[in-house]
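Human: If only I could read backbone structure tokens as easily as an amino acid sequence. Underneath my words sits a plain record pairing an amino acid chain with its backbone structure tokens. Take your time, and here it is.
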Amino acid sequence: MAYNILVTGGAGYLGSIMVPDLLAAGHKVTVLDNFMFKQTSLNHCAYHPNFNVVKGDIRTEATMAPLLKGADIVIPLAALVGAPLCSLDPIGATSTNHDAITLMLKLLSKQQIVLMPTTNSAYGTGDENNFCTEESPLRPISQYAIEKVGIEKELMQRENAISFRLATVFGMSPRMRIDLLVNDFTYRAVYDRFVVLFESQFKRNYVHVRDVSRAFQHAINNYDKMKGQIYNVGLSDANVSKKELCERIHKQLPDFTYLDAPVGKDPDQRNYIVSNDKIEATGFKPEFSLDRGIGELIKGYRMIRNTRYGNV
């Protein structure tokens, strides 16, 4: 079944993969984006008769209200993503990541569907075994994670909503982000040939950007049995430490060196192992492995080398 889908922040890292996928699946897609990074990541969609784009800000009710009225499904990707960017602009982060979503939820009817990306960074350090399911206590550390937790609570008061707690995303995208951990370490391996690790034993989960898009499409196609739920979205075989990640990169780039720092702490204290059993029980399986993604990034970095491809 084809839907009218509104994707806010659709020209970003996730959206520039997801929007073409949604169009290819036969949906009508409207993108709202402020193009704050001057990205041209959706140029290749302009030809499509089912694609529309609006330049604007999700915090503006006069902009959002008419767009929401025409939507069967809303995918709110627009956000100031990640702890460093939120630290640079904490007021902007709150107004975008929390206040604008609260406004959106107020404007929606009960029948409209919301598919919301949240974050598994909300688990913080997990339990004594660092193991987390969707039922685990949330211990968000950063402003970004704290506000995502708050919005998820508001979101799940709606019947027609799904929250996806995304693992750390990796992979090439038309609107690239080099600051994400796998992308960052692979970039350093390609160009610097070394990285210094702080608290290299800290673990987290990872997922390819194209599998994130696939998870959202899976939810659209299986909405009746998935609605009203929270799902972790990640690679079950990629709960790996920073040191283990470097070992995987080293297999493809043998001259890459990684060293443990003898002193110092990582400002990012996330350390957890995440279960993705719940979404896998619905029939979803990731397609892109961590090793495949590293190989993809190595190829991609042969084509780009500058500081534009990040959030900070």
